[in-house]
Specification:
By secondary structure, the protein is mainly α. The protein contains twelve helices and two strands. It has one domain. Helices cover 71% and strands 4% of the residues. The chain has a two-stranded antiparallel ribbon. The longest helix is centred in the last third of the chain and has 43 residues. The protein is globular. The protein starts with a helix and ends in a 13-residue tail after the last helix. It holds the Pfam family DUF3100. This is DUF3100 domain-containing protein.
Length: 268
Amino acid sequence: MKNVKLHLLVLILVVIAEFIGVKNIPIGIGTIVLLPMLYAMIFGLLTTPKFLNIAKEKEMEDAGSLIGLTLMLLMAKYGTNIGPTLPKIIAASPALILQEFGNLGTVLLGIPIAVLLGLKREAIGGAHSIAREPNVALIGDMYGLDSKEGQGVLGVYIVGTVFGTIFIGLLASFLAANTPLHPYALAMASGVGSGSMMTAGVGSLVAMFPEMEEMLTAFGATSNMLSGLDGLYMSLWLALPLSEWLYKRVYKLKYGQLPEAPVTKEGN
């Protein structure tokens, strides 16, 4: 709270982003919705180059330490939407639970592409999940963050932090405009275990379907909460074993031999 420069920068960026407002870009039969959060993210990135001398290391470090706090406040706000819509959420609980298996899609899609692009065991760390904080901790505990797997998960974590919110916000609005998927389904899909990504996805949907705002935010927040609760166990019991198995198969397919044995943090 002592970094006055940081708070002034944030205030200026928020005011500029809100002044621009929501922009709708027609694409085919639908519309891509650009939200103020997207502008704020881009403007924030533009303040970081050293030659501009706007945001220095201190501002960036302090901003990083405040992300968790602000997301907690955001999730508390979303939590107030869950109670009034609880009967409908309970009715949709099978879909909410089964959708968690969709997290395995990162393995089935990411591992083959990563190996074919030339990555080795970095593929396991980077593709076993969407690489949020619990997944970084899991890989760090099992392999160490200085390992190949650790490099992979940290690389995806950084990319997800910088571009993930922008990507999922655009993806949600694009799918809502150009596919028959129901907005509730897309709201649930936005809850990937990242508060900022969920907010971007749900925010885009709310801008397109304002009459569904309460249900969209409730489904998104509930899905995100479930992803945070069982996502770690999904990674530990299913995603990582599947990643190891698939990595060996794709590696052998490309190189004609099995890969090197994994080295855990304990060295066995």
